[in-house]
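hi! just following up on the protien thing from before. the input was this:
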Amino acid sequence: MMTIFTKIAKGEIPSYKVAENDDFYAFLDINPMTKGHTLVIPRNTEEDYIFHLDNKTYLGLMQFSKSVALAIEKAILCKRIAVTVMGLEVPHTHIHLVPIDKESDMNIANPKLKLSTEEMAEIAEKIRNEFIP
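and the predicted 3d structure came back as:
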């Protein structure tokens, strides 16, 4: 059974894409903790636990995530890009890249931002324009 993230990466469900290649896909979280909160997923596996990925996929995911994080850093005014892997809500390995200014920005209990489709599209475009594979 395909996960929602697999359907997003295949274009079956719309998303605010920020970067992609043959192996990985990055898109804005629709319930962001901060502006620019991005999810990065592997395309070629539906493994739901990052430490069960084969080494090639794991290392590729980390390298791709770094490139995406550097693009976010240029596109969004912030002090850091926080990285977290929880993997409890969607059964598909994914990395959260979250622009932050302080530690409390990463508190998952914080209310999620409500951004318009226009704001989301603008943020995604800014990140895409900064992405260097």
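Residues 55-75 form the longest helix (21 residues).
Residues 50 and 128 are 25 Å apart (CA to CA).
cheers
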